[in-house]
Automatic annotation (TrEMBL):
Keyword field: Electron transport, Heme, Iron, Metal-binding, Signal, Transport
Organism (species): Skermanella aerolata
Keyword match Iron: yes
UniProt GO MF annotations: electron transfer activity; heme binding; metal ion binding
Cytochrome c domain: residues covered: 19-99
Extent of the signal sequence: 1-24
Domain of life: Bacteria
Designated name of the protein: Cytochrome c
PANTHER family named among the record's database cross-references: CBB3-TYPE CYTOCHROME C OXIDASE SUBUNIT FIXP, CYTOCHROME C4
Pfam assignment, any one: Cytochrom_C
């Protein structure tokens, strides 16, 4: 399976209907994020970074760069492009509030 196919499949998966958990979380666009980064902020695959406990300021900066295209990622540029500043802030605060996994 090629990287391009995998990336396109990931984009399609990101826009599938979300679980009841994500819909009830009161965080806009969370359902899109949990497809790759997990409900608990732990990546669903080794290629997706863990976001649990990540500092919100860093996440805001990175999402803004993905949205503008200053930071390149075939998947994240598409996912971040429609996000508003308020949605980015809410997502960053949500993931910062989760307990990081690991030892």
């Amino acid at each position: 399976m090629s990287f391009r196919f995998t990336a396109m499949a990931t984009i399609v998966m990101a826009f599938l209907p979300v679980s009841a958990f994500a819909q009830s979380a009161d965080v806009p666009k969370l359902g899109t994020c949990i497809t790759c980064h997990g409900r608990d902020g732990v990546g669903t695959s080794p290629v997706f970074p863990n976001l649990a406990g990540q500092k919100s300021l860093y996440m805001v900066q990175q999402l803004e760069q993905f949205r503008s295209g200053a930071r390149k990622s075939e998947v994240m540029n598409v996912v971040a492009k429609p996000l508003t500043d308020a949605e980015i802030e809410a997502l960053a605060n949500y993931y910062e509030g989760l307990k990081p996994s690991g030892p």
